[in-house]
Amino acid sequence: MSETASVVVGVDVGGTNIEVGAVDERHHVLCRAKAATPEGGPEDVLKVIIELVGSLDSDPIAVGVGIPGVVHEGRALTVPNLVGWTEDVDLIGPLSDELGVPVTLGNDANVGLLGEWTAGAARGGRNVLGLWMGTGVGGGLILDGRPYVGTRGAAGEIGHVIVAAGGALCKCGRRGCAEAYAGRRSMRGVATTMVDAGRKTSLFTIRDDEGKTKLTSKVWARALEEEDTLATTLFDTAIETLGVAVGSTINLLDLDRVVVGGGLAEKLGQDLADKLYKATRPWMLQPSPDLQFVVSELGDDAGVVGAAVLARAAVVTG
Amino acid sequence: MSETASVVVGVDVGGTNIEVGAVDERHHVLCRAKAATPEGGPEDVLKVIIELVGSLDSDPIAVGVGIPGVVHEGRALTVPNLVGWTEDVDLIGPLSDELGVPVTLGNDANVGLLGEWTAGAARGGRNVLGLWMGTGVGGGLILDGRPYVGTRGAAGEIGHVIVAAGGALCKCGRRGCAEAYAGRRSMRGVATTMVDAGRKTSLFTIRDDEGKTKLTSKVWARALEEEDTLATTLFDTAIETLGVAVGSTINLLDLDRVVVGGGLAEKLGQDLADKLYKATRPWMLQPSPDLQFVVSELGDDAGVVGAAVLARAAVVTG
Lengths: 318, 318
Description:
2 copies of one chain form a homodimer. Chain A has helices at 2-5, 42-55, 92-99, 108-119, 179-182, 184-196, 203-209, 217-225, 229-253, 263-268, 270-280, 302-317, and strands at residues 8-13, 17-23, 29-36, 63-67, 70-72, 75-78, 103-107, 128-133, 137-143, 146-148, 257-261, 292-295. The first copy, chain A, is α/β, with parallel strands linked by helices. In chain A, 56% of the residues are buried. Chains A and B meet through strand 9 and helix 9 of A and strand 9 and helix 9 of B.
């Protein structure tokens, strides 16, 4: 009974899916559930979260939620990657009312790093950047041995570190952000343009073959494995660009660890972290000899495990 | 007597001058002394520090020293801007032996921000970047309400945030660092090249008129005041470039304050901070509404006052 009583639930709200997991005190995921992220706005998302948490065979003492937005003092200030979300949404009130336990909210990238820091590849790191390669490029920071979220919860935006002012147009409207070169959305855009211009690539054939509608990380990983020229060029550019952004970050923050996660990290493993290190090295001024580049250990579970840590911390601190 | 007993001495070791000051508990500089930085290496610098401290009419309970290098666990690991310094110099041992009081060492840019944070323009800031415009571009950080120096004391290098990968060659050997556009050394290099190429500027006439051998911040300030075209172009480029670097930093760290210091800040005042804010604004993703750009209040004294704070903290913490 006491073991059951110490279970918490972590919720990872992504642009595509919502994943939930019951997590024990050793940060192991006991059971999982998953559903597509509804596009009708916050109320629909709340409904799906409540259904998913209810579907788990667990009796959690607390729930933690990671969402792709700026979270400050428990409120979601902006959630740019979810459809139908206006500013400043209260998720905690309705969720804790419905679930009957304390609910804690955090930014998904920060929460993912919290998971890796507690139970994964960032364990023992004092000054850590978590870099998540996905549709966009997200990031989180551990500084001086504790999570750093900044003045209003908006810190960690490694994807919007500028690598070439005036360069490629980013979804955010600026020119030259790392994400404009290294986010899958941008990479797909360039690939499409290149195909229109007559360049050959197996990316779209692989996409169809895998039964996907998008160029997922699985599609990219297969194209890279098959040594597709365009895919390799775009991937190399992505890594070179992230090397510049991570180099700037290390010059600012003198880190001891960089953890690389996201779909591509799960597919490529430590090789991805090694490639990023190689691309970063030329840009570092005076790196610590202790600096390490490592791949995520928790993979897809990082968000759920991190959200569970957030939930557990709230129980401890009241 | 008790008032005298609480005086500490701050030492600011720069590439050009060494400045020392006796500082009281309210962070006021009671008296000052100054000498040229010797170029014979650490032992000569130690000698000058000891002479300068001795020349002050004070009986300090502790001494703090800011130096332009990486300081880790009390040792100067690298001091790239001083002539004749090899790696890993012990300054504290010989200095405290000679002066008979505890001596504490810090990086000059971090120490300058510590001064501004304790008694100047960064007071009350929780997440602050200090940006010093000088021969190079230095920086320091306050994060989560305390000084942040990174894994090995090398954090804060805003001058080596990359703004345009592959761009202008920096003294550090990399291409595209902010300092390569916004450091006075680089700006003078471009001005010289332009004059060689036939462009007109009053910069060098003003330099001679002011009796200087270098393009000091006073020379730059006068050329800007006289609306010299080349000086204005180079200054505008410097500010635009720093805007990109500070924008990246804000996207990473979600700051609430940026303090601009250095010689040019003393000459141009708040106008410089306003110009930097204007140049940064287009690059910020989701800045805090509390974000402020302010000019240094302590000016040239920031280093001495900050080093004194360092000295005082060491007395308190033992």
